[in-house]
Amino acid sequence: MSEIEGIQQPSQGIPESTSAETYQVPTGFLANHPARPHIQSVHEYKELYQESITNPNQFWARQAREHLTWERDFQTVHTGSLLHGDNAWFTEGRLNASYNCVDRHAAKNPDKPAIIYEADERDGGEGRTITYGELLREVSKLSWVLKSMGVNKGDTVAIYMPMIPEALIAFLACVRIGAVHSVVFAGFSAGALRDRIIDAKSKVVITSDEGTRGGKIIHTKKIVDAALEGCPDVRSLVFQRTYADVPWTYGRDLWWHEEAEKWPAYYAPESMSSEDPMFLLYTSGSTGKPKGLMHTTAGYLLGAAMSGKYTFDIHEKDVFFCGGDVGWITGHTYLVYAPLLLGIATVVYEGTPSYPNFSRYWEICQKHNVTHFYVAPTALRLLKRAGDDWVKPMDSLRVLGSIGEPIAPEVWKWYHDIVGQKKAHIVDTYFQTETGAHALTPLAGVTPTKPGSACVPFFGIEPALIDPVSGNEIHGNDVEGVLVFKQTWPAAARTVWGSHKRFMDVYLNVYPGYYFTGDGAARDSEGYYWVRGRVDDVVNVSGHRLSTAEIEAALLEHPNVAEAAAVGINDEMSGQAVNAFVAIKNKDANDITDDLKKEFILQVRKSIGPFAAPKAIWIVSDLPKTRSGKIMRRILRKILANEIDQIGDTTTLVDPSVVDKIIATVGVTK
Ligand code: WT7
Question: Gene3D superfamilies from the xrefs (predicted)?
Answer without folding.
Answer: 3.30.300.30, N-terminal domain of ligase-like
